[in-house]
């Protein structure tokens, strides 16, 4: 089974600043994922040609199941997080992670009915402040909508903005979640054209077994967004 987490930056290139959504589609299609955790996905915004990106992604990539989480308003549209899955989504929860009036952040908690049983999946995009991020992680891990699936194998994926790589030592360790993207030096994703920060991370617990994890470093992925995509091959034991 294959998961990709990817901050697509609304389909706007990290260096040329051009909106070329076909680049995002081609980068993802080449990796043949079973489930996608995407951040900064636009819907009805001028900068992205008023495209409905969740619909375009699902249609072009052939995903039957999707869950879009609207987070930030931009004029008549906005952007947020998106999960696309080849497996049915049986449960979905949206959890607010807004902290002290800062930019609205939210997490998706989904139950996917995979061929090997249910999977608890979290897709999120954390804040820019270190204290804010630790608060957000504790809020999510202590939330009833997350805790009620405690016995289900779990993956947490997304853009953590964790520049100093401190999250794994705190709340994740306390909840026995293991970082699949360690050491950070092997998983640098930002900025895409010359990555120095391992911002996009995956954590797991339960019967999830990691097979392989890698960053997509191609000429196209370095242009398509300001982040590189992170690919995780896993199985449920």
Would you mind describing this structure in some detail?
This protein has 237 residues and is of the alpha+beta class. It has one domain (2-236): Deoxyribonuclease I, Chain A (4-Layer Sandwich), CATH 3.60.10. It has 6 helices and 12 strands. It starts with a strand and ends with a strand.
- In DSSP terms (H or I, runs of 4 or more residues), the helix count works out at 6
Mean pLDDT: 96
Distance between the termini: 12 Å
CATH architecture: 4-Layer Sandwich
Fourth-level CATH superfamily? Endonuclease/exonuclease/phosphatase
Counting helices, strands and paired strands, the structural category is alpha+beta
Q: Level of helix content? A: 10-25%
Keywords:
single chain; 237 residues; alpha+beta; Deoxyribonuclease I, Chain A; 6-stranded mixed β-sheet; 6 helices; 12 strands; 19% helix; globular
Provide a compact summary of the structure.
The chain is an alpha+beta fold and 237 residues long. It contains 6 helices and 12 strands. It is globular.
